[in-house]
Amino acid sequence: MRVISGQYKRRKLFETSTDKTRSTKDRVKETLFNMLSTRLMQAKTLDLFAGSGALGIEALSRGAERADLIENDKEAFSVMRKNIETLKISDANLYYQNAFTFLTSTTNTYDVIILDPPYHTDYLDKALTLIAERKLLQSGGVMVSLSHKTKAIALPDAISVVKERIEGITTITFYEWSE
């Protein structure tokens, strides 16, 4: 696994050995960040269910101002911290915390929210609901999720799908506030 583009381009990232987390394939990551492109410049970014931190690190590499990375698996959090320290990244905040606890307690709002929960769970639905209820996405911001292509997502009224693309078994979905 590596950083695709930007400041940390081609730098290798450590991966977890646990089966509790899943590495995002480079092709999926490249598609995701090409679709995000200009939205990342100076963005305050949230990487929920961060795993090794690869998506948050990619966002920072491509110009995000700050990234909050949330992970509650002990091994994954340790790998994420190692990746941040190895790359000498200073604009990342790491939280060893349950994603839903973080969402209910944070006072931060974000320009970009990346949701990459374990497949075949209802975590994405729950996270979208909490984000909408707590108004954690800035006006004009975007959320993006990675989910299994067969996953049906229950959207809160305040959120609408803007764009979707399937890469292999993964659906990349972009959301914004509904008007």
Walkthrough of the structure:
The longest helix has 14 residues, at 74-87. The chain has helices at residues 26-36, 54-61, 74-87, 99-105, 123-134; strands spanning 44-48, 66-71, 92-96, 110-115, 137-148, 159-167, 170-177. It is an alpha/beta fold. The protein has a single domain, classed as Vaccinia Virus protein VP39 (Rossmann fold, 3-Layer(aba) Sandwich). The protein has a seven-stranded mixed β-sheet, sandwiched between helices.
Which terms summarize this structure?
179 residues; alpha/beta; Rossmann fold; seven-stranded mixed beta sheet; 7 strands; 29% helix; 28% strand
In the CATH hierarchy, the architecture is 3-Layer(aba) Sandwich
- Distance, first to last CA: 38 Å
CATH superfamily: Vaccinia Virus protein VP39
In the CATH hierarchy, what is the class? Answer: Alpha Beta
What share of the residues does DSSP label as strand, in percent? 25-35%
What is the N-to-C succession of helices and strands?
HEHEHEHEHEEE
Number of helices: 5
Number of domains: 1
Widest sheet, order of strands: 3-2-1-4-5-7-6
State mean pLDDT (0 to 100 scale): 90
Structural class: alpha/beta
Number of distinct beta strands: 7
Uncertain segments of ≥5 residues (pLDDT<50)? none
The largest pleated sheet is described as: 7 strands, mixed
Shape: globular
* Whole-angstrom Rg: 15 Å
Tell me the layout of helices and strands.
Elements lengths: L25 H11 L7 E5 L5 H8 L4 E6 L2 H14 L4 E5 L2 H7 L4 E6 L7 H12 L2 E12 L10 E9 L2 E8 L2
Parallel strand pairs: 1-2, 1-4, 2-3, 4-5
Antiparallel strand pairs: 5-7, 6-7
Helix pairs in contact: 4-5
